[in-house]
Structure formats: C-alpha cells, structure tokens
C-alpha cells in the first residue's frame, strides 16, 4: 500500500516507457539503437548539413509519449540555389553565386542545349547535356571523322 493525499492506495502508479523516438525531417536521432526507452529518458537529435536545430535538441520520454519540440530549419538563404549542379562529362567554368553558371563539356563530348544554368526562385534552370562524339571512319585509311549525335559510348571509336 501507498499513502497519498487522498488516502491509502493499493498499488504504485505505472509509468510507461516509449518506443523509439519519432524522426525529424532533415535530421536524425543520435545513438538510436534502443527499442524501448524508459520514462524520463532523453533522445538527442542532430540536423543534416545545411540545417540547424530549432526549438531544442532533445525529446523526453514522458509516460509513453515523446515530449519536446525539435525541428531542423534550412540555413540556405531564401531564393538561394546552393552550389552549382553536377554536369556529367562537363564542368562549370564561370560561377556567379546564386545567379548564373557557364558550363563546358570535356574533350570528346559535345554540348546539347545552352551552356548556362540560371538561379531562378531558388532552383537552377536550364537543360544541358554533354553527349559523346561518335566517330565515322573515312574512306581514307586511318582518318576518323567526329560528328555530334545521340549518346554512344566512346569505345565505339576504333
């Protein structure tokens, strides 16, 4: 028996544990290897790169429920496009932060589309591809003529 302000009770209160903590968008729980968390245990969160914690860095198991406000907020300025997108078989040669990028294709590749991508409302716009130059053998022995067309592996050139 236990004495309470309302008199004697015949049992102790049961405090429930918690299942694993809920995920957070753009973040994760550190050391999330426990299947059950005891009442009062803490789950600590961390954000992915480019994101920062807001509201707190942990949640607490409170009688079967996780309490605490954890959010991961994007640190990229509004309207920012971030780093230039990758171009397969090419590189950027001029990059003005958050405005425009000029690309060029590697040797043995030719560009399809405009050589620029532009930052517009937080997104990089513009379609660019670097296509392999295919080869056609000339009637003159030993001479190879390159022309631009659809993608073919460079290994077709012999």
Automatic annotation (TrEMBL):
Disulfide pairings: 18-61
Listed InterPro entries: ComplSys_Reg/VirEntry_Med, Sushi/SCR/CCP_sf, Sushi_SCR_CCP_dom
Compartments where located: Virion
Highest taxon, organism lineage: Eukaryota
Pfam families to which the protein is assigned, alphabetical: Sushi
Keyword terms: Disulfide bond, Signal, Sushi
Signal sequence, start to end: none
Residues of the Sushi domain: 16-74, 79-132
CDD domains: CCP
SMART domains tied to this protein: CCP
PANTHER family membership: COMPLEMENT FACTOR H-RELATED (PTHR45785:SF2)
Identification of the protein by name: Sushi domain-containing protein
Species, as recorded: Periophthalmus magnuspinnatus
């Amino acid at each position: 028996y236990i004495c309470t302000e309302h008199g004697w009770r015949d049992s102790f209160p049961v405090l429930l544990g918690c299942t694993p903590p809920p995920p957070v968008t753009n973040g994760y729980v550190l050391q999330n290897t426990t299947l059950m968390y005891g009442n009062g245990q803490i789950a600590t969160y961390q954000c992915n790169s480019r994101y920062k914690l807001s509201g707190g860095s942990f949640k607490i198991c409170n009688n079967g429920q996780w309490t605490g406000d954890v959010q991961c907020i994007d640190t990229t300025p509004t309207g920012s496009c971030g780093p230039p997108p990758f171009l397969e078989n090419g590189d950027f040669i001029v990059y003005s932060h958050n405005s425009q990028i000029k690309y060029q294709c590697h040797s043995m590749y030719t560009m399809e589309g405009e050589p620029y991508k532009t930052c517009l409302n937080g997104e990089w716009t513009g379609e660019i591809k670097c296509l392999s130059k295919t080869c056609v053998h000339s009637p003159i022995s030993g001479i190879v003529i390159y022309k631009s067309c659809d993608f073919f592996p460079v290994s077709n050139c012999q």
